[in-house]
From TrEMBL:
Residues 40-220 form the FAD-binding PCMH-type domain. It comes from marine sediment metagenome. This is FAD-binding PCMH-type domain-containing protein. InterPro entries: FAD-bd_oxidored_4_C, FAD-bd_PCMH, FAD-bd_PCMH-like_sf, FAD-bd_PCMH_sub2, FAD-linked_Oxase-like_C, FAD-linked_OxidoTrans_Type4, Oxid_FAD_bind_N. One of its GO terms (molecular function) is catalytic activity.
Length: 391
C-alpha cells in the first residue's frame, strides 16, 4: 500500500532539492501527468521534484523508499509507451536539470553525460569535435539521453548504426535503497559487469534512476546524401529495400511514408513535398567520407529503385534540401496528432521480408472497417508505425 505525500514529506523534500525545484500546484504539474502516448489518460503526480545531482536523487529515493511513496523518473516526456507517466501518483522525478555533458573524450571517442542532456544537444556538441552520435529518434531535440537509455530508443539511422544499446558503454544509477551502482566506463570490451547495463536498458525507470551515462561515439561522416524515391507499387517499394541491403549496399536509413502521411506532413508544414501524389515514398539516407564513393552508392541504389518500378529518384546532396527532408520526417507524429487528436498509435516490428504482408493486412482492415491508417517508419529494420485515425 503506497503512502500519500503529506506536508511533512513535502518539507523534507524541499530541504533536499530547494523550494523552487518542488512543484505542488496542479497547473504546474499538469505537463508532467502524461507523455506523448495518445491513448493513455493523464495521471497527476502528487509532487514534482527537479534534482540537479546524484546525491539529491539518492536522498529522494531513500526517503521515498522508507515512506513507501512511488517514484516515476522522467526525461523529456516524449515517449510513446507511458514510461514517464506517474500511474500511482506519488513523486514525479524530473531529471531535466541534470543536463550537463561532463566530458567529451575525442581520443577515445566517448562522451560522459548526465541523463537530462537532449539527444540533439549531444549530437551538436560532439560534431564540434568531428564526432557523431548516430541514434536519432524523431524527437531528438526534446528527448533526453537518459530517456533514450530507459526506453532503449532507436531511430532512422538504425539500419547502419544500430540503436541506443549499441552505444552505452557505462552507467551510473541509484537503486531505490539509495545505493549507487556503476558499471562499465570508457572501454569498448567489458565481459564482467555489462549485465547491469543490459538490465537497465529498456527498463523504463522501473529498476533504478540513471544519473550518469558513458556513450560511445563514431567519426563524423564527411558526406551525407538523402534520396526520396516515389512508388505507386508497394511490392516494388518493399522489394527495393530488400534488394539494396542484399546487394551489400549499406544505407544509414531506409524509411517508408504512405500517401496519407506525406500529404498530412505537407499540410502541417505548409510546404509541398516532392512527389506527394505517389502511393508511398522510400526515403534512403547514406553517408561516407569520399564524395565519389557515396555518389557511386546512390547511383547503384537509384538503378535498383528504377528497376523495381520507382517513378523517379530525387537526390538531396546539399544541406538545405536534406534539412527539408528531415524536417518532414521528424514532424510526422506531430502532424498526424494535430489533424487527428484522437488517433491510436501502434509500433509494430516484423522481419523486413514481411513488411509488405503487414501493409496488405492493414489495407484489408481499412477497407473492411472503413477506417483510415497512416503507415510510416523504419522499413530498413522492419519497424513500422501504424496510426489508426479515428473519425
Amino acid at each position: 500500500q503506497y503512502k500519500k505525500v503529506d506536508m511533512s514529506i513535502i518539507t523534507r523534500l524541499m530541504q533536499i532539492v530547494g523550494e523552487k525545484n518542488v512543484l505542488t500546484k496542479d497547473e504546474e504539474k499538469e505537463s508532467y501527468s502524461h507523455d506523448e502516448t495518445l491513448d493513455l489518460r493523464r495521471y497527476m503526480p502528487e509532487i514534482v521534484l527537479k534534482p540537479n545531482n546524484r546525491n539529491q536523487v539518492r536522498d529522494i529515493l531513500i526517503l521515498a523508499n522508507k515512506e513507501r511513496i512511488p517514484i516515476t523518473p522522467r526525461g523529456g516526456g516524449t515517449g510513446l509507451s507511458g514510461g514517464a507517466v506517474p500511474l500511482y501518483g506519488g513523486i514525479l522525478l524530473s531529471l531535466e536539470r541534470m543536463n550537463k555533458i561532463l566530458e567529451l573524450d575525442k581520443e577515445n571517442m566517448m562522451a560522459v553525460l548526465e541523463p537530462g542532456v537532449t539527444n540533439g544537444e549531444l549530437q551538436r556538441q560532439v560534431e564540434k569535435y568531428e564526432l557523431f552520435y548516430p541514434v536519432n529518434p524523431a524527437s531528438l531535440d526534446s528527448c533526453t539521453i537518459g530517456g533514450n537509455v530507459a526506453e532503449s530508443a532507436g531511430g532512422a539511422n538504425a539500419v547502419k548504426y544500430g540503436i541506443t544499446k549499441n552505444y552505452v558503454c557505462g552507467l551510473e544509477a541509484v537503486l531505490p535503497t539509495g545505493k549507487t551502482l556503476r558499471a562499465g566506463g570508457k572501454i569498448l570490451k567489458n565481459a564482467t559487469n555489462s549485465q547491469f547495463i543490459d538490465i537497465l536498458l529498456g527498463s523504463e525507470g522501473t529498476l533504478a534512476v540513471i544519473t550518469e551515462i558513458t556513450m560511445k561515439l563514431v567519426p563524423l561522416p564527411r558526406v551525407k546524401v538523402d534520396l526520396i524515391v516515389p512508388f505507386d507499387d508497394l511490392g516494388g517499394l518493399c522489394g527495393c529495400a530488400l534488394k539494396i541491403i542484399n546487394n551489400r549496399l549499406l544505407p544509414t536509413t531506409i524509411e517508408l511514408m504512405d500517401r496519407l502521411t506525406i500529404k498530412t506532413c505537407g499540410e502541417f508544414l505548409q510546404k509541398e513535398l516532392p512527389f506527394s501524389d505517389a502511393k508511398a515514398h522510400l526515403w534512403i539516407g547514406l553517408d561516407g567520407n569520399k564524395k565519389e564513393e557515396v555518389a557511386s552508392m546512390y547511383q547503384s541504389m537509384g538503378e535498383i529503385c528504377l528497376d523495381k518500378g520507382a517513378l523517379d529518384v530525387f537526390v538531396a546532396e546539399d544541406k538545405p534540401n536534406r534539412d527539408r527532408i528531415w524536417q518532414a520526417r521528424q514532424s510526422i507524429h506531430e502532424a498526424l496528432v494535430h489533424f487527428n487528436p484522437k488517433m491510436v498509435g501502434n509500433d509494430i516490428v516484423v522481419p523486413r521480408s514481411k513488411v509488405l504482408s503487414l501493409i496488405k493486412g492493414i489495407d484489408s482492415l481499412s477497407r473492411k472497417h472503413s477506417v483510415s491508417f497512416a503507415k510510416f517508419g523504419h522499413l530498413g529494420d522492419g519497424n513500422i508505425h501504424v496510426y489508426i485515425l479515428q473519425k
